[in-house]
Amino acid sequence: MDVSSVSNGPYSSAARTRCLMHERAPFHIKALHGFTGSVGNLVFVVFELFVLFFYQRVVGLDGRLVGLAIFISLVVDALTDPVIGDWSDRLRARFGRRHTMMFGSVLPMGLFFFLQFTPPAGLSQQGLFLWLLVMSVGARVMLTFFDAPAAAVTAEVAVRPADRAEMGIYRQVAGLVAYLGVLYLAFSVFFSATESFPVGQENPAAYAPFGAAAAIALMVFMIVASAGTYRHIRRFEDSLPPPSRTRFDWMKTLRSWGELILQVRNTRALFWGLLLATTMGSCFRSLNLHFGPYLWGLTTEQMQAWQQAVPYGMLAAAVGARFIVTRTEPKYLYLTGYTILLASYVAPLFLTLLGLLPEFGSGALAGVLFGFQLAAGLGAGLLMICSLIMFAETTDEYRFVRNVSRTALILGLITFGNKLASGLGKVVSGWILEWVGFPDVKSGVEVTPQVASDLALYAGVFCAIAGLAGLAVLSTFRLTRARHAEIVAGLRERDGMMQTEASSG
Fold first, then answer.
1. Among residues 35, 160, 212, 294, which is most buried (max CB within 10 A)?
2. C-alpha to C-alpha distance for 98 and 57, rounded to whole angstroms
3. Which pLDDT score is estimated for 180?
4. Cα–Cα distance between 346 and 457 in angstroms, integer?
């Protein structure tokens, strides 16, 4: 059916909307929308690797306060996410319900992102904490103003499975390029070693230009991703009926989440398992800049290669999963990835303490650590792929058993848990840094081997406990491939009966 005939003929706006949604999405729109992956990965790398190190080691803010500020910002992010998403659904504005927010978030996001790395000189501990808190909360909220409508655009650009799969590939490729690009700029350009700062990331003068470059790149990615889909989505939005007046109800959502966690076994297993896994990963990653030079003696170049191993491992997981995911139970593949990730985090820490790794600062040690990071990326990639499969199958099970769809509700719960866990990991990291007495650069105190070893011990014990607890929780997940096939068949039969009844009525 031609779109013009729908708009000019005797068809409802709903019919025109369906026609527009089922159009084949043009290549350039899908490709440009992939830059949303660049936005997400750039923010992820900077927040995970550099913020804690900068404020604790370079600026001198108490690690516990750094962790608390990041935790609060992520909680605010998690709480505002569904509210902003709901607002986007109901918004009517000049540039559309999605792109008004997406375009409007670009400049403030870049500003908050940059200002994180330029705290005014002479601030007290409380002043530094408030500066980091305000800038982190501002950046996170602005990111939500971009991410929430951008996620909806992903579904609205096209409903054809082939188009959505293609968009996912473009997003992954763009995200990988941004991930590697940030690491290159950080370690090869801004934090390169100098005579004054052999550990380049200790140089306080490097953070303002690094923050500026990252903020500019971030804004460019946001503009490209927004502009690329603007015209296509505006055609779709013009055909929509008036928005619902029903507003998002947080109390109702929290009650529903409580029911999912307490009463639905598989949802409970996924939620707590992912929360523990994310907390473990967040703690380990946020201490990477502390581990690299002080525990293992890695140079700036070796740090870059070490960090780049993760996306390479994730890419390998994405390619390999295509050949094994249909032949293996998702749960067992998930547990395999989880075990690989846990071992990749914990093993190098404990092997260092036991003196079983190559010599401090040697090329052989850098190679071994690269291998562990590559394995960590592989494990993380398997987790991401299998969690999506298990999430989809769990929502099917819920719909089959309860006869009601709760896909968005369950997705919101998992997203909330991941953001909460990311913040918890930073809190734990900040406390560990203070417990071991990790000094800041301004104090002039050197990081002794004992302090570095204590850091490895505390972090290793925490990651081991969190990881093993997550494995135990996830082992309670009970939904086999055969059972899911029965559920899908039952849903098709039920949906067919409902369609028959509707047509006969």
1. 35
2. 40
3. 93
4. 10
